[in-house]
C-alpha cells in the first residue's frame, strides 16, 4: 500500500485546540488507513510512540523541574552520613586508648572499624533491592534509625568488661552504613538536574568524608590519654552521649523531611527512567547486565583498589604515626583530619569540574595517577622526623585519594545508565569493602613485621595496578547521551528546522500512525509571526512532496489542505 504522510501544522495556543487538531487529523487518517479513533482528550488509543518520543519525550521536555527542596534533602543525607562515618573511625583514631580500656589487642580494636567493611558485603543486595522496591525514604529512615540505635547501644558499654556491648553497637552502625554508603549518586540523579548531578554527588559524599575528619579530630580531644580507667570511662561516655544525641535529632529530621523523589523529574534522563512501567524492571536482570558491562567491571576493580587503600590508611593511621612519633596521639588525629579535609575540597572541585566538562575518563585517570604519586611521597616522608612535612604530604594525598571517591560513583552512573545508581554504587562499595578488609589486615601484618614503609609500598603497588586498569576503561557516557538524545526529535518523516519556520516553536511531538502510514507531526507554537499563512503551507507541502510523500496539511479548525 502507498505510504501516506500526514502532517499537522496547527495555530495552537490552548490545549483544547491542540486536542481538536489531533482529532481532526486522526479522523482523516482513519478513513484511509483504518486506524483507531482519538480519545476525547486528543490522545490516540492504540498508538505506540516512537523511541524517545510520545509521553516519555513530552514528560522529559515539558515536566522537567528543579525544586529548592533538593538542597535540604542532600544536606540532611550528608549530615546523617557524617554521623555514621564518625562512628566508624572513632575507635581507630584513639586505638591505643580503647585497647587499654577494654584490655583488648590493637587488632581487636581494628575490627571495630573493619566490621563496617565486612557488614556491607552480604547486605548490599538486600538493601539495593529494598531501595528499588520501597524507595529512597524507606532507605533513609532505616539508615538513620539504625545509626541512632547503634549510638545508644554504645552507652551501655562503659565498663572494661562490656567490650561485647560496644561491638554490638558498632555492628548495628555498620548495618546502618549499608543503607547510607551507596546513596549519593542515587540522590543526585533523582533530585538534581543534568548540569549539577556531579556537584550534588560530591556534596553527598562530602558529609561522609567530613564525618571521618571529625572522627579523627574529636576523639583525641574528648578522650585524653589518662591512666585512671574510671576517668577514661567518663570521657568516653561524653563522646558516646553527644553522638547519640546528634544521631537522634537527625533521625527525627529524616522522618519529617525525606521523600522518595520530587513530584517532577529533574532531568530528561531521569524522566525517561520514571516513565518506564515498574513491571519492565527486574532487579536480578539489572545486576546481570552490570556484571556483563566490561567497562563497569574494570571501574569496580579500580575503584575498590583505591578506596581499599584509603580505608586501610585511615584505619591504621594512628599506629602508623605513633610508630614514628611516639606520644603524638592528637597530631595523628590532626593528620587524619588533614587528609579528609583536603579530600573534601578535592571531591567538591572534581564534582564541579565534571559538571562543567563531562570529561569523566580523563579526570578519573589524572586523579588516580596523582593518588599514586601522593602515596609514594607520603611513604618516603613519613619517617623524616618532621611532622609538618607529614601534614603537607598527607594533605596532598588526601586531596586526590579521597577526592576520587565521588568521581567513581558518577563515572559508574554514566557507564551503567539506565540501571539504578543504588545498585551500581553498591557494587563499587562491595569492591571497596573487600579490598579494604584485605588491605587493612595485610598492611597491619606487614607493619608489625617489616615496618610502616613496607606496608605503604604494599599499598602503592595496588594503586599502580588500579591506575593501569583505569586507563583501559572506555568513556561510554550513556547518561549524557540520553540527556542529549531526548532533547532532539527522532523521526523518519522530514523535519523542518525551527529557524526556517514563519513562527517560533514551543515543542514538537511526533506520533506514528499504523504501519501503513508515516507520522503525524504537531508543531505547537508559542508565538506567531505576522507573515505566516499560505506561503508557509506551500513550503511544507513542497518539502514533503520532495521526499516522495503525499502531503496533507491540517489547520487548527480541522480543515485539510492537499
Automatic annotation (TrEMBL):
The chain crosses the membrane at residues 71-91, 111-131, 138-155, 161-182, 203-222, 234-258, 296-314, 334-355, 362-381, 387-407, 427-447, 453-473, 535-553. It comes from the Eukaryota. The keyword Amino-acid biosynthesis does not apply. It holds the Pfam family MFS_1. GO terms for biological process: heme export. It catalyses: heme b(in) = heme b(out); choline(out) = choline(in); ethanolamine(in) = ethanolamine(out). Residues 34-54 are annotated as: Disordered. Keywords: Cell membrane, Endoplasmic reticulum, Membrane, Mitochondrion, Transmembrane, Transmembrane helix, Transport. Residues 73-478 form the Major facilitator superfamily (MFS) profile domain. It is a multi-pass membrane protein. GO terms for cellular component: endoplasmic reticulum membrane; mitochondrial membrane; plasma membrane. One of its GO terms (molecular function) is heme binding. It is found in: Cell membrane; Endoplasmic reticulum membrane; Mitochondrion membrane. SUPFAM superfamilies: MFS general substrate transporter. Its main location: membrane. Belongs to the major facilitator superfamily. Feline leukemia virus subgroup C receptor (TC 2.A.1.28.1) family. This is FLVCR choline and putative heme transporter 2. It comes from Crocodylus porosus (Saltwater crocodile).
